[in-house]
Specification:
Layout: E1 5-10, E2 14-23, E3 26-36, H1 47-63, E4 70-75, E5 81-88, H2 92-102, E6 114-124, E7 129-138, H3 139-151, E8 155-161, H4 162-172, E9 182-189, E10 194-201, E11 205-212, H5 216-227, H6 231-240, H7 251-254, H8 256-276, E12 281-288, H9 296-304, E13 308-310, H10 321-325, H11 334-338
Parallel strand pairs: 1-4, 4-8, 9-12, 12-13
Antiparallel strand pairs: 1-2, 2-3, 5-7, 6-7, 9-10, 10-11
Helix pairs in contact: 1-3, 5-6
Length: about 350
Amino acid sequence: MTDTAFGIDIGEKFTRLADATAKSNKIELTALAEELTVANYFSDETDKTMELEAEIISKMAKDLKIIKKSVHVIIPDSYCFAQVMEFAKLNQKELLSAVRYQADQFIPLPIDEVVLDLEIVKENNITKKNTILVVATPKLLVNKLEKTLELAGYSPESLESELSAVTRYFSEVSPYNEAQPSTYLVLNFGFSTTSIYLISMPGGILSELRIVRTGYDLFIKELKFNLELQDNKAMEVLESIGFEKNGTYDLATFAGPLLRDLVGEINKFVYVAKDKYELPVKKIILCNFDNRLHSFDKKLSELLQLPVESLLMRDTLVNNPISQSFSTKMSSFIGSISANIR
């Protein structure tokens, strides 16, 4: 657990801060908060946008009495390009060259316009091959995030994608880790996208991933269009009623096509787990905006005929006033909390 920096998750809708320390093999939260990210932060290239976001971050840290000046920054999956790839065992230079050669398969930008991050997630001593997580982030975005943090008075110690942070939780401290071979599907239900991670146990190894363009914002748009609601009211309805049976609004009817698309993508991963890894998916785990869509877990379980639950973090956290206050929203902070795990 890092003692010199804290985690900042600059998301499309919310900016989340988390400071934590290790205590008796658990995570002790010493600070946790979220505020709205500046509107259009990721699309507006003006200095004013960066200055406004810097002010938000600076005020949040001041209010939380965080005195650290270094940060670990989390980048939304929706702005990264990622792939799990298999290569023969190579040195760093050879591996980078091999990745650059195949990059156009999943990176829609010139390779010189992105920052590449390579992580060995599994070494197979029998086949002499390594499974590599490759993440590419546009250099323009990396520069923007670094400048924003510098304006706020902080030094970025690291920048990484949500998927790197979330999957590290499963490999390092997850209560789901077990000795028997099994697979879990983790759904990072984000604002504009949903990331699907296939996690293999033991070890919490990322085996497959996919990012689909179905996120929380599309559910907001469906309510706005069908019920003529403003954003805040639509979000309130999603959180208080959502997919609750016999609710005031029948969200399942409005959002039917969205659910079918998402369920279709999830089923592809269920098939891959059985066909490629010869293991059934034991459980589907939700995080991020899942707690802002009431009964989302129950609806998915009904459609997929699989156990579905929101990410359980209680057993990995020290019980204190902070963990208690955010208990119903804790899965939203998985990125910023995991940024502290080093």
